[in-house]
Every structure is written in structure tokens, then in C-alpha cells.
């Protein structure tokens, strides 16, 4: 999926949820329930912690690279820190066309990543400000 497709897909989901009078939290719940229905989380939890953690970090980084201009990953002994500029890649006209604010977009991103991490039992912190999004993914002990 290309950048524009990824961003437009997310914006369409948010716009649709607003039309249906769903909160962003309800949209994320619906989204994750679909993955639960097909057994995604059950399968992920059957994997070793190391594989589950590795896939989570890889998907987090790849997802951010498809949306943000600058993505940096720092690894320490205890965590990965994924920092992304909040300046989105490419044309952002669809925010206006679909009636979605950048604040709503970032709020959805926060709810989604926190819900996903919780379902996979991976501890994270999520911080976004006017310049960057910072996600700290704490390493699981015993890996």
C-alpha cells in the first residue's frame, strides 16, 4: 500500500466513523474486534514473546514510515523509541475534503497503537506534541 493509499484509508475510516456518530475510541474498538474475530490476536499470542515483540516493532516502524516524513528508531537495553515527525508525507488535502482534523488523526493513531499493544501484552508509552510523535516500546523481560 502506498503512502497516499495508507493515509486516505485512515482518513476515510475516521470520516465514516464521524458520519455514524462513533467516537474514535469506538472506531478503534470496532477495528480491533474485527481482528479478534478472525483470530489475529489469538495467533499472535501463540507466538513466542520474542517473535511477537519483533513483529510489533517492525510493523510500527513500517507503518510510521508510510505516513510521516521522518522516522527514527533508537534501541537501548530496555526499550525501542520510535520518533516520527508529525509532518505528514505528501498531499494532505484529503483532511479538508473528508472533514478530519490532524488532531483527530493523531488521536486515532494513539488509540489504535495503545489498543494494539495492549492486546499483544506489549508495554508502550505514546507522546505526541506539535513536532513529533514518540512511541516507547519497552522490551519484554526474559527475551
Features:
single chain, 143 residues, four-stranded antiparallel sheet, 6 helices, globular
What does this structure look like?
- It is a single chain.
- The protein has 143 residues and is α+β, with helices and mostly antiparallel strands.
- The chain has one domain.
- 55% of the residues lie in helices and 17% in strands.
- It contains 6 helices and 4 strands; from the N terminus they run ααααββααββ.
- It has a 4-stranded antiparallel beta sheet, with helices on one face.
- α2 packs parallel to α6.
- The chain is globular, with a radius of gyration of 15 Å.
- The mean pLDDT is 88.
Q: How confident overall, as mean pLDDT?
A: 88
Overall helicity: 55-70%
Q: Could you tell me the radius of gyration in angstroms?
A: 15 Å
Assign an overall shape: globular
Work out the helix count: 6
Major β-sheet profile: 4 strands, antiparallel
Content-based structural category: alpha+beta
**Separation of the first and last Cα atoms:** 32 Å
The count of β-strands is: 4
% residues in beta strands: 15-25%
Strand order of the largest sheet: 1-2-4-3
Q: How many separate domains?
A: 1
Q: Provide the succession of SSEs.
A: HHHHEEHHEE
Poorly predicted tracts of residues = none
